[in-house]
Amino acid sequence: MVCYGEFRETGGGPPGACPQHPRTPRAARRPGCPFCLIVGGQAPATMLREWPETIAIRPHHGGVTAGHALVIPRVHVVDVAEDPVVSATTMLRAAELAAEAGDCNVITSRGTSATQTVRHLHLHLVPRTDGDGLLLPWTDAPAGG
To answer: Whole-model pTM?
Structure first.
């Protein structure tokens, strides 16, 4: 079977079970992290939604489409692979917003080669409309084009 964090077959457990990886205690905030500063109320942001474990904000530049939101965990996690539970919870909250948004992209990046610019997990929820002109890097034509 294939389990998170691994791209190989694993064995030794019951069928369908992933090995239990101990969760590393997380620092709630990392000094200098822009998203930790927002979560801690030390930097401005337009808050769209708050949950016990995550927040949703408007990107500081306004976003690439109307309704663009960032969903960010309250604890500092560098990227989607660092803590699967935090990542899954953050995705759950992004999915709740996506249900309200209609057509949209939900995107996260891991590492500089994948265009991650802030080293704190965040998911972009980007509402889409036909002909909005927004290209994803791997597409040839805009939505509806």
So the answer is: 0.78
